[in-house]
Design brief:
homodimer; alpha/beta; eight-stranded mixed β-sheet; four-stranded antiparallel β-sheet; 18 helices
Chain lengths: 466, 466
């Protein structure tokens, strides 16, 4: 069985869908016979070198499409499907059969995926990027031939410092900016500077942050989020010396931290001699009113570490993120800079510097903001039209996602959506410490979807759920 | 004083030389007057956002060129130089004065730098790289628009697995290969998989490895290196569960681990249920006889973690390194893959895949090998001709550096070389646990130097030292 699952990794749909498709093809072609036991999650995940979670998703998908069946305390077995209908020669005819099952098979490469990690790639100025990359290779061979400054190239840090001041009110010198390959890597670097103090994270919150800190043996405590963001009273009752928050657009719930709470958390940091990590992961996209200034801009006491990234606003592939260190940590960083060399391509660093310096960055951001505003507004109007009062929308008027509160059991809602060709995501995975939302919360990311897909996706959701 | 030191970071000479040059210019132009106290190492390092070590090097250089003088228990002061001679208008005349001091001033941008981190960049096929980068941007937009698989792109891992098998005898599937931005990042990831066991490193050895592990709160023990590499008897007397070694070309001493010692350390790993990290950092360049197979190729018990990098053999700027995990660790990795997303540019990953797939990699390696062999042979013949029996050469017949043993005090030898326009490096920094070599050891990296520079550099070294 293992050997017959030959994974074509070059395909571009989500991994679990691809795994699922290969198993389906083998079932359809009768290579995997009815009643055959599928490998365990563990075995198949080892064999393919992918996570168990991915295999679970793939099996879940097979289960919901009826290709396999679960036998309690035994495992997952190939179901009794009319293999004749699905044999590859007759496949074209089969998909004409107007049943839910065949409809899904027809469309399983066309799932509408409300993923939060997708971004719109249709308006990225590829030809500009290519031109500036060639400029870099032709004219900046010192960038090609060296990993550059540990901290990141000065020219790029200059551009970022200028941008942060103009758009986010963050006042910092280029010396305070550390470039790194992903927020995750920078969090590790920051941990090295701060040490194994207790860390507080939002609950619900960006689960990776907590996991990375736990892997580094830090004590991590989850602090409940209310509509103003992290509850500072609860925070003050812990031993935490560092608090990780997303004040501009709480992830996942979307709340914006009002200035009263901002002042409160800064006071906590000063009184407690602690730090606040402000992850401003998608603040480029604020659709209503003025952009909210960063927490960093309110901090007069060198207590805030600011995190930003180009992953969601420029190109995910170049892995370019940065953090702004306050003085006390900068001093420690300087002593570590020789050990921790730069992780971001020096070619890309120069290319982004040129991109920013020549005005393309601001132009691109404006276009993206307009596009995302349209998508955001469409998501809201479609949700209202199709669901009315049946759902509650937690809307932040910014970013690439909304959370909706729906009646019904989370896994059933997600499975029903899948059956209708729509992938939506559970918010429950972002809760920990045994917490969970009172009403089921579902995450809808719309960054990578077209306007048509958004309408179609929400229409299908309504069919699935109402 | 701080404000007047305006650092032009875009320049390409080593940072300490640039800092040094700016201070010199200010002294020459009488902006910094005779008797002015320079800022402390700490103050200047904070102000410029560079490491203290860099400032120390810069001040050391100013001291050795006589621009400043050290007053015991007080600090470093601008020396009494005939500023008239050095005023910027008369600078051209001044440099004609045939004294050691002016010669050095004239040439301070032309230091011959025997750095171990430099690589030859003259024969890199830039036009091929540019073409393949454009191919990637044009034809592989899925690479542009996503960070790709956590583990690294499958196509690139295929190419690496093929290369490792053919050139290093490493048998591994692409599933076992993890791509990451620098060896340092991969070491962190490995630490997350292995946990806080005790780690053994070579003494002397690559100091960063120990520092990174210590920053991660691991217990690190240094094990003495003899002419066969790490002493396994000493290793077995420790609680270490992981040993980091450089068997193909011990860093920095250059010894090659013979097969007897290899078998010994593998037996230690099996009996002790431990792992060996084999860092094969520059094994592409073996000049005499057959390449020595990797330790990995001798391992039948899934005990070796293999580290490789493209930094020294292709392009330092793209930050592309990899590790090969044995089964037990791969299983753990698979569960972490969703947290630790890929850190290397997906654009560069595809470009390197195309570079390898189309034969450019093997061609480039062959050219580099020929070039480095010439440089290596020249270093040896020049050293022999100029120094004869006065020095002892620890020669590995591979890689980009040699270590020489010389009579005299290390800092004095290095300062004398600097005065003659040559930068050489102390081996003592790679010893720890209070160890030090009996006879002074000096490191000469020759990767980035031309044949002419090698000859000139060693001639100057002989003048400085004999």
């Amino acid at each position: 069985v293992l050997e017959s699952i030959n994974l074509n990794i070059k395909n571009n749909s989500p991994l679990y869908i691809r795994i699922c498709d290969f198993i389906k093809r083998d079932i359809e072609n009768n290579i995997l016979h009815k009643g055959t036991k599928l490998p365990s999650y563990r075995k198949l995940s080892e064999h393919l070198g992918v996570s168990r979670n991915t295999i679970e998703q793939a099996y879940q998908q097979l289960l919901s499409e009826g290709y396999v069946e679960s036998r309690p305390k035994s495992g997952i077995y190939v179901a009794d499907i009319s293999t004749g209908i699905f044999s590859s020669k007759q496949h074209e005819e089969a998909i004409k059969i107007n049943t839910t099952a065949s409809k899904n098979i027809e469309k399983n490469c066309n799932y509408i995926d409300f993923s939060v990690s997708g971004i719109d790639t249709t308006i990225f100025p590829i030809s500009v990027w290519k031109k500036l990359t060639n400029d870099t290779i032709n004219n900046f061979q010192e960038n090609l031939n060296s990993s550059g400054e540990s901290q990141g190239e000065f020219g790029l840090r200059m551009q970022i410092s200028k941008y942060l001041y103009e758009s986010r009110g963050v006042k910092c010198s280029p010396d305070q900016i550390i470039i790194g390959a992903s927020t995750q890597y920078l969090l590790y670097l920051l941990y090295i500077l701060i040490g194994s103090d207790d860390y507080a994270v939002e609950n619900p919150g960006y689960d990776r942050i907590a996991k990375i800190l736990i892997d580094l043996s830090a004590n991590v405590v989850g602090i409940d989020v209310d509509q103003k963001g992290m509850n500072v009273e609860a925070l003050a009752n812990t031993a935490a010396k560092v608090a990780y928050i997303t004040p501009a657009h709480q992830f996942p719930l979307g709340y914006v931290m009002p200035v009263s709470r901002r002042v409160e958390i800064l006071e906590w940091a000063v009184n407690n001699n602690s730090y606040v990590i402000e992850d401003d992961y998608d603040s480029e996209y604020r659709f209503v009113g003025k952009p909210i200034p960063s927490l960093h801009s309110l901090d007069k006491n060198e207590r805030v570490i600011y995190f930003g990234t180009f992953t969601k606003s420029l190109l995910p592939s170049i892995r370019l993120s940065y953090m702004v260190l306050p003085e006390p940590l900068l001093e420690r960083y300087v002593n570590k800079a020789e050990i921790y060399s730069q992780t971001v391509s020096n070619i890309h660093q120069k290319t982004v510097e040129l991109f920013m310096d020549r005005g393309h960055w601001n132009r691109h951001l404006n276009k993206m903001r307009t596009l995302y505003r349209k998508k955001h507004d469409l998501v809201l109007s479609e949700l209202f039209e199709k669901f009315g009062e049946k759902i509650n929308i937690l809307d932040a008027k910014s970013g690439h996602h909304v959370v909706i509160e729906v009646d019904g059991e989370e896994t059933r809602l997600i499975a029903a959506a899948l059956l209708h060709g729509v992938v939506v995501y559970p918010v429950s995975q972002y809760y920990f410490d045994g917490k969970s939302p009172k009403r089921t919360q579902i995450l809808l990311g719309f960054g990578s979807l077209s306007l048509e897909e958004i309408s179609e996706g929400i229409t299908k959701l309504a069919k699935a759920w109402i």
